[in-house]
C-alpha cells in the first residue's frame, strides 16, 4: 500500500521567514526550502501550497521511517503541541536539502565548464581566422 505524508514548517531565519516542506512517500523523504518575505498568514500559506505545490523542486529522496499517527486523540494533541514547541527542521529534511544544494552546485559547475570551453573554442577559431587573413595579405 502506497503511503504519503507532507509536513510544512515555517520559521524565522533572520532576516527572512523560511518555509520547509517535507514529503514522505513509501519510506523516502524529500524536502524543499522556500524563502518567504514577511511573516506569512495561514491563508497565504494555504494559497501558496495550492498554487505552487506541483512546481516545487524537491530534493532527491533519502530513506526515512514513515510516521504513524497515534490512535489516541489526546496523544495526537500532545505531539502536535510538542511539534509547535520544537519548531525545528528534522535532520532528515536537512540532509535532503543538503543533497539538493550539492546537486545544484554540481550542475552549475558543469554548465559553467561547458560554457567556458565553448568560449575558449570560439576564441581559438577567431585567432585561427585572423591568422589566415593575415597570411593571405588581404
Which SSEs are present, and which pair or pack?
Blueprint: E1 4-13, E2 16-25, E3 28-36, H1 42-52, E4 62-63, H2 73-86, H3 91-136
Antiparallel strand pairs: 1-2, 2-3, 3-4
Quick rundown:
This protein is 51% helix and 22% strand. It has helices at residues 42-52, 73-86, 91-136; strands at residues 4-13, 16-25, 28-36, 62-63. The mean pLDDT is 84.
How is the main sheet built?
A: 4 strands, antiparallel
Find the count of extended strands (DSSP E, 2+ residues): 4
Question: Helix and strand succession?
Answer: EEEHEHH
Structure class: alpha+beta
Please bin the fraction of helical residues.
Answer: 40-55%
**Count of distinct structural domains:** 1
Query: For the largest beta sheet, what order do the strands appear in spatially?
Result: 1-2-3-4
Task: Describe the fold and architecture.
- By secondary structure, this protein is an alpha+beta fold.
- The chain has one domain (4-107).
- The chain contains three helices and four strands, in the order E-E-E-H-E-H-H.
- It has helices at 42-52, 73-86, 91-136, and strands at residues 4-13, 16-25, 28-36, 62-63.
Q: Which structural traits does this protein have?
A:
138 residues; alpha+beta; 51% helix
Amino acid at each position: 500500500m502506497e503511503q504519503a505524508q507532507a509536513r510544512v514548517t515555517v520559521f524565522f531565519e533572520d532576516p527572512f521567514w523560511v518555509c520547509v516542506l517535507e514529503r514522505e512517500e513509501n519510506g523516502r523523504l524529500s524536502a524543499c526550502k522556500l524563502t518567504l518575505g514577511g511573516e506569512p498568514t495561514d491563508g497565504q500559506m494555504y494559497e501558496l501550497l495550492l498554487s505552487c505545490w506541483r512546481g516545487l523542486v524537491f530534493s532527491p529522496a533519502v530513506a526515512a521511517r514513515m510516521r504513524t499517527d497515534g490512535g489516541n486523540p489526546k496523544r495526537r494533541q500532545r505531539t502536535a503541541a510538542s511539534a509547535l514547541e520544537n519548531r525545528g527542521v528534522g535532520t532528515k529534511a536537512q540532509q535532503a536539502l543538503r543533497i539538493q544544494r550539492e546537486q545544484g552546485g554540481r550542475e552549475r559547475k558543469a554548465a559553467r565548464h561547458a560554457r567556458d570551453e565553448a568560449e575558449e573554442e570560439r576564441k581559438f577559431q577567431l585567432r585561427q581566422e585572423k591568422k589566415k587573413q593575415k597570411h593571405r595579405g588581404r
